[in-house]
Design a protein that fits this description.
The longest helix is centred in the N-terminal third of the chain and has 21 residues, at about 5-25. It is built from 7 helices and 9 strands; from the N terminus they run αααββαβαβαββαβββ. The mean pLDDT is about 95. The protein has one domain (about 5-215): Rossmann fold (3-Layer(aba) Sandwich). The strands form 2 sheets. The chain has a 7-stranded mixed beta sheet with strand order 5-4-3-6-7-8-9. The relative contact order is 0.12. The N and C termini lie far apart (about 40 Å). By secondary structure, the protein is an alpha/beta fold. The chain is globular. Bound molecules: S-adenosyl-L-homocysteine. S-adenosyl-L-homocysteine binds next to β2, α5 and β4.
Length: about 230
């Protein structure tokens, strides 16, 4: 594949954002939103997704598809990244907890909008690679640590929003506890290799969750340290 200039990549990224906006309109019945907010569009148009793929895979960066990043893990589909970000209803003063840093791409998109992003990744090498890349790209409001996302990051709670980018069989109670009142949680729920549902939930005043099912999705499983998928 011939090498691409930055200008080519920026153009491809703009086209991808157009495609995502079309897909959002086509799926509005499920997702309950007619369009992406300008903030989400701007973030998607800005983050250089090609930097989050292996150098040989740059040519695939602006296809609306998930892609492999090694360690049996994937970088999420751009439409899904945009949708999950949208469903969090982020404001510039919000603090967000992300579970499943992976490549760090979703993390960067969140950081374009929110005040602080705290991200937990279970695979240490992925956490380190993401940290290095995000530093290189100049993201100074992102904190990444290695750990089990089921436990969240209690010292830093409450969060305005929590996003989980690996599928859980049930919503981890610690993540609900660490969500502030009125906060949004977006998480794929379901078993591995079976149907999963993207769930959006808002925390009520009494601490319970108001849940809505958004869309069928396919995510890699959320694992516990030292265990296989559970
Ligand atoms: N958001 C990523 C895609 C994440 S793929 C991106 O945009 O590229 C899901 C990630 O969740 C994987 O990197 C996986 O290692 C991680 N993961 C799985 N179980 C986890 C857990 N219990 N705690 C934290 N991270 C976990």
């Amino acid at each position: 594949m011939p090498s691409k200039t930055e200008a080519d990549l920026t153009r491809q990224r703009a086209r991808l954002v157009d495609e995502i906006e079309v897909e959002v309109r086509e799926t509005q019945k499920w997702i309950g939103r007619e369009r992406l907010s300008p903030r989400v569009v701007a973030a998607m148009a800005k983050v250089p997704r090609h930097r989050f793929l292996a150098p040989g895979d740059v040519g695939y960066a602006y296809l609306n598809r998930p892609w492999t990043i090694g360690f049996g893990q994937t970088i999420s589909q751009p439409y899904i990244v945009a949708l999950m970000t949208e469903l969090l209803d982020l404001e510039p003063d919000h603090r967000v907890l992300e579970i499943g840093t992976g490549s760090g791409y979703q993390t960067a998109v969140l950081a374009e909008i929110a005040f602080r992003v705290y991200s937990i990744e279970t695979v240490e090498t992925l956490a380190k690679c993401a940290r290095t890349l995000l530093d290189e790209l100049g993201y100074q409001t992102i904190y990444v640590r290695t750990g089990d996302g089921h436990e969240g990051w209690p010292e830093l709670a409450p969060f305005d929003a929590v996003i989980v980018t690996a599928a859980a069989e049930r919503v981890p109670p610690a993540l609900v506890a660490q969500l502030g009142t009125g906060g949004r949680l977006v998480i794929p729920v379901g078993r591995v290799y079976e149907s999963q549902t993207l769930v959006r939930a808002v925390k009520n005043d009494d601490g319970t969750l108001a849940r809505e099912n958004v869309l069928p999705v396919a995510f890699v499983p959320m694992v516990s340290k030292g265990e296989g998928p559970r």
